[in-house]
Amino acid sequence: MPHPVDIHVGKQLRLRRVMLGFSQEVIGKAIGVTFQQVQKYERGINRMGSSRLYDFAKYLTVPVSYFFEGLEGMMPKAVTGVAEEAAQFEYEHMSSRETLELMRAYYRITDPNVRARVGELVKSLANGSPIE
């Protein structure tokens, strides 16, 4: 059974890889592993050594600590409460392809004023209120 930390690190790896638009094959070649190995890392089935984690961080342009962000709030499943379940629900949405595509498109908007207006539009639509 995979360790919860390995699962978390794998989810972070997948999130960043998809945000950057890399396939498992592309990142695997860059790091020197097969895409199947990347799949296993992303699922937490295989643990990554520190040198491999460093290689991923370097290639994905994040600090090694990125892979552990949010980990301090994790609790054993036996004592997981509503807040932790809500956080997991939110994390699943953050790692969905639809969300990542929207985020990539949003950050391609170069004008900060336009980007701010798009953010306001989305918030307004989510709240069901008219745009001011």
Describe the structure.
This protein is mainly α and 132 residues long. The chain has a domain at 4-72: Orthogonal Bundle (434 Repressor (Amino-terminal Domain)). It is 64% helix and 0% strand. The chain is built from seven helices and no strands. The protein has helices at 4-20, 24-31, 35-43, 50-59, 82-94, 97-108, 112-127. Helix 2 (24-31) crosses helix 3 (35-43). The chain is elongated and about 50 Å long.
Question: What brief labels describe this structure?
Answer:
132 residues; mainly alpha; 434 Repressor (Amino-terminal Domain); 7 helices
Topology:
Blueprint: H1 4-20, H2 24-31, H3 35-43, H4 50-59, H5 82-94, H6 97-108, H7 112-127
Helix pairs in contact: 1-3, 1-6, 2-3
Report the average pLDDT across residues.
82
Rg, nearest Å: 17 Å
The CATH topology assignment of the domain at 4-72 is: 434 Repressor (Amino-terminal Domain)
Count up the helices.
7
According to CATH, the homologous superfamily of the domain at 4-72 is lambda repressor-like DNA-binding domains
Instruction: Report the major sheet.
Output: none
What overall geometry do the principal axes of the alpha carbons give? Answer: elongated
Which stretches are poorly predicted, pLDDT < 50 over at least 5 residues?
Answer: 82-87
Protein structure class: mainly alpha
